[in-house]
Amino acid sequence: MARTVSAPLRIVVAEDFALLREGLVGILERAGHTVLAAVDTAEGLLAFVRHDPPDVVITDVRMPPGHSDEGLRAAAAIRAAHPDVAILVLSQYVADAYLDALLEAEGPGGTGYLLKERVGHVREFLDSLDRVARGGLVVDPDVVRQLLTRRRDAGPLAALTEREREVLSLMAEGRTNSSIAEALVVSEAAVRKHVGNIFAKLDLAPDSDRRVSAVLAWLRG
Fold first, then answer.
1. Which residues, including other chains, have CB under 8 Å from residue 146's CB and lie 6 or more apart?
2. What is the layout of strands, in order, in the sheet containing 86-91?
3. Burial of 94 (0-12, 13-18, 19+ CB in 10 A)
4. Per DSSP, what are the bridge partners of residue 14?
5. DSSP secondary structure string, 103-167?
6. Residue ranges of the alpha helices (H) in the chain?
């Protein structure tokens, strides 16, 4: 069951690039959300969340001092200590190793993985934030496309039609059937048919409450 989001969301932002950090704060505040803190280190993120857990954490993957995966490790630690806190991770590059770690996180809090360029598409970014805050899983379309490309000729995936691939990609972004229908300019009934075909061909349970997780887990092999 989807979680109910009470606006404004209480958010902590962790990003070491000052311009992007301030840009995120501005976007979030203009959308009516409350930014509790905007920090530039993973240690600062952990310290603040330990003191006052927010509704959502938005963090870069690479943070000082090592600029490797400090932000991701901080997000994992937060999820372990506060499973209700939603996590939205931002990355500069497509790196599905990070996606693996995110999908293994447990708890009712939602999880998102977006490329930083997605922040420039403000409405799209805010829609993703809302889905994550509601307990959903959102994966950047470019990541989904890369996974599909890598495995397009592998096993059951090879049996999917081009339209079914399009629907699968949109499903993995966390979209509902109605949203997919709108994006593809088709009827919702047509989308339901495609979804049924996809789940049958990939041998996935059609009534799964976490269909995005199931689809992405299959794509990761």
1. 94, 96
2. 34-39, 10-14, 56-60, 86-91, 111-115, 137-139
3. middle
4. 39, 59
5. HT--SSS-EEEEEGGGGGSHHHHHHHHHHHHTT-EEE-HHHHHHHHHHTTTSGGGGGS-HHHHHH
6. 18-30, 42-51, 70-81, 96-103, 122-133, 141-150, 162-172, 177-184, 188-201, 211-220
**Residue 64 pLDDT:** 86
Residue 126, both tokens: 């805010």
Residues in the chain: 221
Q: What is the pLDDT of residue 3?
A: 52
DSSP letter (8 states) at residue 85: S
pTM for the whole structure: 0.79
Rounded to whole angstroms, the Cα distance separating 67 from 193 reads 45
How far is it, in rounded angstroms, from Cα 144 to Cα 179? Answer: 17
In tens, the pLDDT along 152-194 reads: 666 777 888 989 988 988 887 778 899 999 999 999 999 999 9
pLDDT at 1: 40
Residue 2 has pLDDT above 50, yes or no: no
Q: Give percent of the chain with pLDDT exceeding 70.
A: 83
- Give Cα 92 distance to the centre of its chain: 14
Distance in angstroms (rounded) separating the CA atoms of residues 104 and 94: 18
